[in-house]
């Protein structure tokens, strides 16, 4: 039987309150559980010590038995130094793919070429205007 340490929702509509429970991984979120080991009230301020309450001894016991905490519970338990929590998001995942990056580079090159062509077109009439003025001065 695989065990999870996870949140079970309680409270009223739009007023969430969660219990930190040890449950069989196959049971539903708010279904049957083995033991309540804490509570989490997200409505309280983040600096309030009553926001997260965990029985550290029982959590340690269940971790030794092989219970796996969910991402959110692992974050709570890391504050008690029971588990090592690392963010699981991958910042590289948001980067565009190879083809999108190639298209972006091509677009940049075209824009740069267009800018250079526009700058050259502006410089030509100015150069032509200066050239006749110089010829008149020589004559």
Automatic annotation (TrEMBL):
Pfam family, one: Ribosomal_S16
Biological processes annotated in GO: translation
Bias kind Basic and acidic residues: ranges: 99-115
Feature: compositional bias, Acidic residues: 125-139
One Gene Ontology MF term: structural constituent of ribosome
Keywords: Ribonucleoprotein, Ribosomal protein
GO CC field: cytoplasm; small ribosomal subunit
UniProt keyword tRNA processing, yes or no: no
Record NCBIfam families: S16 (TIGR00002)
Name listed for the protein in its UniProt record: Small ribosomal subunit protein bS16
Species of the source: Parvularcula bermudensis (strain ATCC BAA-594 / HTCC2503 / KCTC 12087)
Taxonomic classification: Bacteria, Pseudomonadati, Pseudomonadota, Alphaproteobacteria, Parvularculales
Name of the gene this protein is made from: rpsP
């Amino acid at each position: 039987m695989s065990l999870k340490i996870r949140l079970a929702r309680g409270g009223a509509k739009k007023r969430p309150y969660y219990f930190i429970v040890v449950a069989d991984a196959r049971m539903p979120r708010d279904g049957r559980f083995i033991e309540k080991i804490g509570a989490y009230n997200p409505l309280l301020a983040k600096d309030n010590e009553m926001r997260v309450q965990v029985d550290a001894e029982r959590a340690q016991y269940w971790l030794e038995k092989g219970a796996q905490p969910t991402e959110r519970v692992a974050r709570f338990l890391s504050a008690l130094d029971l588990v090592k929590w690392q963010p699981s998001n991958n910042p590289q995942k948001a980067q565009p793919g190879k083809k999108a990056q190639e298209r972006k580079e091509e677009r940049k090159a075209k824009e740069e070429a267009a800018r250079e062509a526009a700058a050259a077109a502006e410089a030509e009439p100015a150069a032509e205007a200066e050239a006749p003025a110089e010829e008149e001065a020589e004559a």
